[in-house]
Write a structure and sequence with these properties.
Blueprint: E1 5-10, H1 22-40, E2 49-57, E3 77-79, E4 83-85, E5 90-98, H2 99-103, H3 109-128, H4 136-142, H5 146-151, E6 163-164
């Protein structure tokens, strides 16, 4: 299958990345395919693959001034403009997750990561596709299989953390 939506985690040299199991990313890729791309008929027929590279930002989101927003996005999530690689037909998006925001989640670090992933997915699609609205995501979020996600090992063993550039 030629996927049009790929999520990758990038290693952080200072060890700030969370030990996320690759099955978590596979779940969200499949979730997006089934509940967004197929339902709203976006990206599927595009010549472009949308590749999302997630970086963990070590800055405490509480220290970002309240007036700072990123294209109207809450200050705890940053989606940078895409880079296009025409030869490979890839649009690469860099997304920064604030580790402190994830760790502050009262339901735990892993659930915080998953909730931030949902925030990112919602923000990306609402900002970029007029046919998808915030109200659509009320139903989309209800379809998350939290039991499956909670069953994925966290922290994941190093061999199950498929980071790009992992050198540890």
């Amino acid at each position: 299958m030629n996927s049009r939506f790929i999520i990758e985690l990038f290693d952080e040299p200072k060890g700030k990345a969370l030990p996320i199991h690759y099955k978590t990313l596979e779940y969200f890729e499949n979730f997006v395919m089934e509940n967004i791309l197929s339902k709203f008929k976006v990206i599927l027929n595009s010549k472009w693959t949308h590749n999302f590279g997630i970086f963990f930002n070590a800055i405490d989101y509480k220290n970002v001034p309240k007036y700072v927003t990123f294209d109207g996005v809450e200050k705890s999530l940053v989606i940078l403009p895409p880079n296009s690689f025409s030869k490979e037909s890839v649009k690469a998006y860099s997304v920064q997750f604030f580790v402190s925001k994830i760790k502050d989640n009262p339901k735990g670090e892993f659930i915080g990561f998953c909730e931030m992933m949902l925030d990112f997915i919602e923000t990306f699609f609402v900002l970029n596709y007029k046919k998808i609205s915030e109200s659509d995501f009320i139903d989309i979020r209800k379809k998350v299989d939290w039991d499956y996600l909670k069953a994925i090992k966290y922290p994941a063993d190093l061999k199950d953390q498929h980071f790009v550039g992992k050198t540890k």
